[in-house]
## 1
Amino acid sequence: MTALILLIDQVVNLYIWTLLAYILIGWLVAFRIVNPWQPFVRTLTTVLGRLHEPILGQVRRYMPDLGGIDLSPIVLFLAAQFLRNFLIGLLVNAS
């Protein structure tokens, strides 16, 4: 049981880091610091978008419209942190 919880914790941790990378690359493209048509940047945004956009889309369905402000990555980040802390709590209580 402990190994499974630790594996899920590592997967959630990896997901959090890739979410932060997705947010960062989005900001870099939005502020025109990097060129979105550069092959590496395009590949990176495509891969990270395919990983995160399905879940972000689900979060956006329940979020109020705030104009140009997208808070869904923050909500997803907090939900992933909650899941991670919940799993750590289960691990502590199990031992």
Note: Residues 22 and 49 are 7 Å apart (CA to CA).
## 2
Amino acid sequence: MDLITHVLVTYLVTLGVVGFQPQYLAAGALAGGLPDADALLYPLGRRFEIFQHRGITHSFLGVTIIAIAGALIAPLLLPGSFLLYFAVMEMGGLLHIGLDAFTNFSVPPLLPFSRQRICYDADRAVNFFTLVVSVVSMYVLLGVERNQVAIQGEWASIAVLGVFFGAYFAIRVATRAWLGRAKSRFGPFDHIVPTENPFTWFLYGERRAGDRVSLHFARYRTGRGISGPYALTVDPAAATRAGPIASEQEAIDRSYAHRHARGRFFEDTYLFARAEPTPPGGWQITWYSIEFVNFGRSASVQVLFPPDGGAPEVHRGFRRVRMPWADRPPAT
């Protein structure tokens, strides 16, 4: 969940709890974003895992320490009750943990007592759709309407935002829960993969049979059902082969070992491959992330095999992608 959306959602919830009391609204909204200040702990995080992003500041203990410190400092800046400052800042921190756990990136709420992480995987960690809504909303509320329109106008805007986010999260939760119960009906799927669109999801599964790995995936669109399933099989041992590549399947097999391209990001995503011949006899295999797709481009690893069978070139980046359902029949 992006920082702006964290702050905006916490602001709306705090407003609903304490009403229009500016000092508490500011404290609650600030607390909704403060756990992400762990990015400033990067030097420590390189040595101590507990200080990495989504580490101790995303735990119950971490947000409580932040809330206590904030409740002690805030009355020195703006008059108010220690207990109320603590309550709204604790609520803001807990909302931050909950919103992050709602996405595809997990959080460890019981650190340092337990490393157990939770993840509902119902939204993207950074969703450009909600980010744009949040940025525009903050500009309207604080830049356009603040002290410029009647209070009724501001309350109307806040009500619209509340309905929007309430509906958005409700759709996400309901669809995620339904797919969790129904996924086995559509194929051998293990994972439910959200996209930025709350009405479009992916199902993904990986199975090993003998010396081959079979990848299965499908697209679910609300009201339109399933596209797929599609299957891709690979032989992980093919990476040791040498010489020119003779077929599309061999190109995919030999590229499989390179799909993570030395990047931890690609170890945490779900991939499918396309192989295309390149003149005069080489092959280009692109492993696309099925979930990190924005504006028609996907996070990808591209493996280029030269015609003479030499060592491949491996590149990472965002590339335009044609999803397999656009030009291939479903796998049987």
Note: The CA atoms of residues 28 and 89 lie 5 Å apart.
## 3
Amino acid sequence: MKALLLHICCAPCSIYSWEHFCRLGYNTRGYFFNPNIHPYREFSRRLETLYEFSLKKNREVIFNREYHLEEFLQTVVEAKNKRCHSCYEIRLFETARKAAELEIDCFSTTLLISPYQDHIALKETGEKAARRYGISFVYADLRSGFTRSMQEARTEKMYRQGYCGCIFSEKERYCRNDGEKLADNS
């Protein structure tokens, strides 16, 4: 059985994603590494929700608790129009590095479940990171499981966030491009 390190952005997105890779026969281990999540309170809440869920489901997850606000902002602020691609690089290259360090055969990401993410860029970035670290990236279009994952998260009374994680996406959630405030969805 091949081992797979699954980058996990949040507990709700991990539900279907984890099951999918296990169904394919992978010995799956999770990795929480998300320096994009801001503010710190949001980072902590997502980490704690995943921690509790992983205990409940008996899933092995490695938690990188380092909070790299300054490094993340320095990286993405220069690439404002490509900030998501920069964010993918930060997280997928670190996941590939960690997989290689742990001698895990391959890696993937729960970002592939989101209908809001750029799958072409995720696949290209994952493959580039895999080449650098001499392992494999497992691409799977998991978007068909998004609704089921979110429904199960509701059933589990799990914390579900309203934005991808970075402060730019939080701003987009509440403000239009012209600066006018949208309705508060919290």
Note: The mean pLDDT is 88.
## 4
Amino acid sequence: MTKAIGFLSRYRRHRFAGPFLLFSALFIAGVGFTVAQAATEVKQELTSVDRATLIAEGKEIFARGCSSCHGLNAEGAGAAPSLIGVGAASVDFQVATGRMPMADMSQQAMRKEPVYDERETAALAAYVASLAPGPAAVTNEELAWERDGNTAEGGELFRTNCAMCHNLAGQGGALTQGKYAPTVMGVEPRHIYEAMVTGPQAMPVFANTVLTHEEKLSIIKWIKFVESEPSQGGAALGRVGPVTEGAVAFLLGLGILIGIAVWLTTKAR
């Protein structure tokens, strides 16, 4: 160690010491950059290969399970609309929630147990996304609604934009022509977000010009708050509004009145 220090002290003022150090630093930086660039290119190449494989899988699944309604090239047919340009978000919402595939396209699609697993759903979404640009699918982790959302703002936005169909408490409600707005309780955050950006069935599309990304996250945060909120007043009665509460009060009150009338009649005898 002492000899090494002595060697450095002896040659540190040498006229070639500066250029040598500069050359060494440039050489190390160049090697590091080349290695990093090569690793990035390999990663991108692998990602591209994985995506191509996923698209190929999705195309096969689509031909087997979806083309009979949506057409061989997703161009649409008499039974179902075109999927060109709907994006991966629409496919992820419809397939992962079990709404698609469905047997009767004349009926409103209902949420049920999904037919395809996560890998197959991702493959279908990748294939449809490869046909034309559209809204991208998201994950619950990517949204970070717990961190970026605002519960109070989300409640106000929900009452302004969503409550007329989905009920003030998000329990769902009836629409015209036999349609209905489903409950938003128990729905995964990513599916709520995807529904807002794609507008499935009778639902409008909430573009970023209508609701910003942060406002969508606030709505999700409010929905999750209501979902886990305890009922401080006793039985929640489904939180569907005054109709249920009035019906229970009427029937309960009427039953009590009938009971009192029977009791009075019995006592009078």
Note: DSSP finds twelve helices and two strands in the chain.
